[in-house]
Amino acid sequence: MSGVQESIGRPAARKTRRPARPAQTTKKGTPAPGEADAIAKSPNTKVKTFVLDTSVLLHNPAALFVFEDNNIVIPFAVLEEIDKFKGVSNDVGRNARQCVRYLDRLRESGRLTDGVPLVEAYPETTRRGDNRPNTPPSGSLRIDATQHKRPDAINIDTADNRIIASAWVLHEKGENVVFISKDINARIKSDALGIAAEDFENQKVDIDTLYTGYRTLTVDSDVIDRLYAEKMLAITELEASLPPTENGDSNGRLHGIAPNEFLLIVDAGDDSHTGLARRLADTEHVIPVSSPRRPVFGIMARNVQQTMALDLLLDDEVRLITMIGSAGTGKTLLAVAAGMTKVFNDEAYEKLLVARPIMPMGRDIGYLPGDKDEKLISWMQPIFDNLSYLLSTRGHPMQAPDSHTTEQRINRLIGDGRLVLEPLTYIRGRSIPHQFMIVDEAQNLSPHEVKTIVSRVGEGTKIVLTGDIEQIDNPYLDGSSNGLSYLVERMKDSGLVGHVTLQKSERSNLASLATDLL
Fold first, then answer.
1. What is the DSSP string of 191-242?
2. Residue 285 — left, alpha, or beta (φ > 0 → left; ψ -120 to 50 → alpha)?
3. Are 6 and 303 a contacting pair, CB within 8 Å?
4. How far is residue 285 from each of residues 116, 263, 400, measured CA to CA in Å?
5. Cα–Cα distances in Å, from 298 out to 45, 390, 477?
């Protein structure tokens, strides 16, 4: 029996990975518990001196505690820059204030200019997911308040040059200095002066090996037939087709298969005979997957990845879904269609909540006229486009003659409180129960912002995050450090979570061509 007839190739070949540079390392050469993602092993056993740039502390103030038994130096110019941000009412301001609190706690144990042990300011408890090691670091922290003479190359008096000068002086003294910055240009300038410079590796993922949510397996013909005949198949029956796992199974994986991971199984003797299966949460079985028999609010899957996405979106047991894909792959449209079906037709949730970060592409046009709702229309226009498409007169029961125009139908849903469109600006402190929540353009969120959003989810709520990690408008994030990529990697082994990377653009032939060639 043939399952999904449309054949799928493996994910498009990625660029060749560059040789990895040593990340933030430790004297012992062994990561502390819970710190393996941030600190790599190094054959160099000499204690290092890490000079931290402002961008690192504004990205994650807990960076003070991830360097184990090495020493940290913070140039005085960094404190001046942090002081400029501490009053800002956003995530950067919050990080600036938290960093100041850590430094103030360290100040209680001695003069910061003389150096104090980091263990004195280490929190008594470590919260899961905050990316601090489970054991306190044994290194020290010192603030460099000296105005150093700068080399001619950085003689211009700027904050960046004063920060780099601190690292340069220590380097000239023979210390094993590493300059840590998320500012690419600052790293380039440091490298040009002979100083080892690295990005802050904590909370970053390897974009070249980012989890796609599915894999392709070649099996015998009878395996596919049994999958659809018995409606379930033990993972052990696929063991011969699975690659060996390096260190055994852990974190919810079984034979290397993550919970809710999809398997496109292809007949070894006939590549047109295929099937699609998904590991059922934390069980030891896979179940067959097929496209919904009826349109989902007028939408049918056009390729196998969209079939995967709809399978997760319509499964109420999967509470968190992430979807990554380039422009036109249908991420937002599928999420909105599934949400409207679940809320308006099935009444499985009380509301459909759609949110987007306020992040313009290119230069901001400035303040917008009107009240909050009128300002919001400009930011939420992509969502209105999808709603208009789904609510247009295309044969769905909700498109009855008395519904009048598409705009009137949307306004009716908003007026009834069943459809809520809002920015993410005011989500902190909220609790969101019994709702189908969609966070669009999530690639523009930091890991901390994503954590804040997901932790707002109340009982009975399903949350979907969509985005294109190749189109990031936030100047402080990239494909490896954005919150969406981070969430995919950190949550992939939970039975409540599902992920799909959409590959094919279905918006139009021109959109597909632009995606491929531009």
1. HHTT-EEE---TT---GGG---SEEEEEE-HHHHHHHHHHS-EEGGGGGGGS
2. beta
3. yes
4. 54, 12, 43
5. 62, 7, 36
Tokens representing 212? 């796609």
Looking at residue 514, its pLDDT comes to: 77
**Residue 376 has what pLDDT?**
62
Report in angstroms the alpha-carbon separations of 458 from 247, 353, 355. Answer: 36, 13, 16
Q: Can you identify the CATH homologous superfamily of domain 49-198? A: 5'-nuclease (3.40.50.1010)
Compute the distance between CA of residue 431 and CA of residue 406 in angstroms, rounded to an integer.
31
What three-state secondary structure class fits 65?
Answer: helix
Question: How far is CA 415 from each of CA 347, 419, 421, rounded to the nearest angstrom?
Answer: 17, 8, 11
Among residues 453, 470, 446, 469, which one has the least CA distance to residue 182?
Answer: 446
Classify residue 403 by its DSSP letter. Answer: G
Mind listing the pLDDT tens digit for each residue in 72-120? 999 999 999 999 999 887 778 888 999 999 999 999 889 999 999 988 7
Residue 351 β-bridge partners: 435
CATH topology for the 291-517 domain = Rossmann fold (3.40.50)
User: What is the domain partition of the chain in residue ranges?
Assistant: 1-17+206-290, 49-198, 291-517
DSSP output for 424-464: STT-TT--B-SEEEEE-SGGGS-HHHHHHHHTTB-TT-EEE
Tokens 């809320």 locate to 343
Cβ 162 vs Cβ 75: under 8 Å: yes
Any residues with CB less than 8 A from the CB of 120 and at least 6 apart, and which? 105, 106, 108, 109
297-321 burial code (b ≥16 CB/10 A, e <16) = bbbebebbbbbbbbbbbebeebbbb
Encoded amino acid at 261, one letter: E
